[in-house]
Amino acid sequence: LESFRPSGASHVLACAKRFVEYQREQADAGEISHRSVDQLEGQIRNHWSKWERMIVYEVTTAHVDDWARELRKRLGPGTTTVVLAGMRSMMRWMHRRQELSTVPEFPSVKIPENDPRLLSREQQDAVLETIPVERRGIFLALADLMLRPSEARALRPAVYEPVKNRTDKDPAGWMTVKCAADGESGNATVREWTKTRRVRTLPVSDRLADWIAKYVPADARLTQEFLFPALCGGMISHSTLRTTWDRACRDAGVREVPVREGTRHSSATAARRSGLPLDLIRLFLGHTDAKTTERYSKHHNDALVALVRRGK
After folding, report:
1. Contact 127/267 with Cβ under 8 angstroms?
2. Cα–Cα distance between 188 and 88 in angstroms, integer?
3. DSSP assignment, residue 30?
4. How far apart are CA 127 and CA 285, in angstroms?
5. pTM of the full predicted structure?
6. How high does pLDDT run on average in the chain?
7. How far apart are CA 159 and CA 148, in angstroms?
8. Distance from C-alpha of 55 to C-alpha of 59, rounded to nearest angstrom
9. Antiparallel, parallel or unpaired: β 200-204 and 173-177
């Protein structure tokens, strides 16, 4: 019997360490982002202390329910969901490897929907006009192409193609979105896929094309690593985007909203309000599931309700 007794390697945290190593190998192979592995390590370090001496084969649904209840007392519902998902992923990995016979049932945590913080087209344009013109390009891309900040930061000069001999039906150019920044700092690496692993080729607005023609050198494909580089060169950091956007909101006299909501989300909601079909909005946003895009219809209705309430 002693030879079959679970060893220290069967403790939950020991299994988590092996799972992180497996995830790190996947990240090195380019299958997932390094940032997701770093976040998993942080969750294990900060929130998995309950499992320090528990054998992984002894974990039951009751244990998981008790843990979820403890997490809810000190964490928000969104963070609680992410922490539980990390444990569930590890146990499913062990089950797939036939190291674990069954995976306990994990509780679902209801996440309340936050009221969207959005800008109208007029407010968005006012903020964009306040940003110094030489730094405005990336914000035009965020607003007009509805890009994620990580996608806009990773754009390279070669992904933009201006349209020559334009007709009235042609856009000013086309932008291919296929990469994203893997991290928020200026030293972040570029991963060769987007969040949903979809390559999108989007029509470029006249104002963004005019900005590129004026502020991006003609030989940028050879001399410039990024389409919208930082002032000192290299990738622009997310904190720089955030501080520049927040300052522009204050200068324009517009309520401060996060850069992602003030550009991508606000533009998608405005597009839906103008009658653009959800399928077309989904193509711009790069969603794989139409249900994800449907929330912009709800945002549209929320904006109308808010307008009526202000009228009262």
Report:
1. no
2. 29
3. T
4. 22
5. 0.70
6. 86
7. 16
8. 7
9. antiparallel
CA atoms within 13 A on the CB side of 103: 16
Residue 189, strand partner residues? 182
Beta carbons within 8 Å of 252's beta carbon, 6+ residues apart: 123, 126, 127, 129, 130
Model pLDDT, residue 53: 84
Q: Identify which of 183, 182, 204, 202 has the alpha carbon closest to the alpha carbon of residue 191.
A: 182
Tell me what pLDDT residue 304 has. 41
- Four-residue CA torsion sign, 211, 215, 217, 221: negative
Read off the tokens for 158: 């070669």
Backbone angles phi, psi at 203, to 5 degrees: -70, 140
Cβ atoms of 228 and 137 closer than 8 Å: yes
Task: Looking at the chain, list the stretches that DSSP marks H as alpha helix, in order from N- to C-terminal side.
Answer: 12-28, 34-47, 61-74, 77-96, 121-130, 137-144, 149-153, 206-215, 220-223, 238-252, 259-260, 266-273, 278-285, 290-311
Distance between CA 259 and CA 268 in Å, rounded? 14
Please, how many CA atoms are within 13 Å of residue 24, restricted to the half-sphere of its CB? 8
pLDDT tens-digit map of 96-150:
999 998 999 998 877 665 556 789 999 999 999 999 999 999 999 999 999 999 9
Query: Which two tokens mark 63?
Result: 């244990």
